[in-house]
Design goal:
20 strands, five-stranded antiparallel β-sheet, elongated, disordered N terminus, 2 helices
Amino acid sequence: MELIHSWMMVVFTFSSLSTVTFISGYTQVPYFHETEPNITVHTGQTAILRCTIENLGPKMVVWRKLGSGYPLTIGEMIFPANDKIDLQQKKDWMGRDHWNLVIKRVDPSDAGQYECQVSSSKSFVYLVQLNVIDSPPEPSPGLTLTGKTIVNHNERINLTCLVKGESRAPEDVDWFFNGVKIVPGSSRWRNRVYITREREPYKREFKSHLIIDNSRFSDRGVFVCRASADLVESESVTILEAPTLKPKKNRDVTGNNHGKFVSDRKNGSSNSLQSSCVHLTLIIQLIALTWTS
């Protein structure tokens, strides 16, 4: 009975050691953590293809595009040299290695399937599909407020508020002046203020114009367009005194200076008189010479 018990202990110990050895050997095999296997970007954007590996050890990582005759990266070396291709390589606090392939300024020819491969006697491959939409990206959700912010007195103020919704166009926007909501029919703004509204559901856009005719000095201040608590923009408007054109003195309708014109006329008469005197003197001298001869 003791012999059987001893034999069972040996078998159990051996089995335990074998299990530990098997698990230990298994945990040294590199394997991939699940990352995004399908990436979609627009033309001109940057694509990041992620590859996260555990138990990489001294093995090397190679990125290649399926169907291409050469690898894109071998370890930290980029092949061939290409300023569109880059690597993001790091080891995180859990000991996992991250080897991310970065493709800049993507175009439709970059679309396809890419593989992150660990060089080993056994093939370890993780596939990532890159899709490229052949069009520029749509503008991100947000609000912009534009318009002339320095105007002359009595000149029109015209501000434009453009809101881009994330999933749909906003329903409306509110306008404020120095913290007070603008109501076109109020005594302050009556017959001077007009607010236009244009909603384009297909573009997920809402556009509004704030128009103030005959601006006054009291219209100086901060104008705000608000679509929601997160979508708010402001602009400070300054009203200047309009310059006035004053006629210059001593100028006629032709732009000549009257004083200079009179002076020139007098000078001309004086010169003419002097010339006549000279001529008369010469004539008298000629007559005298002729008489004496």
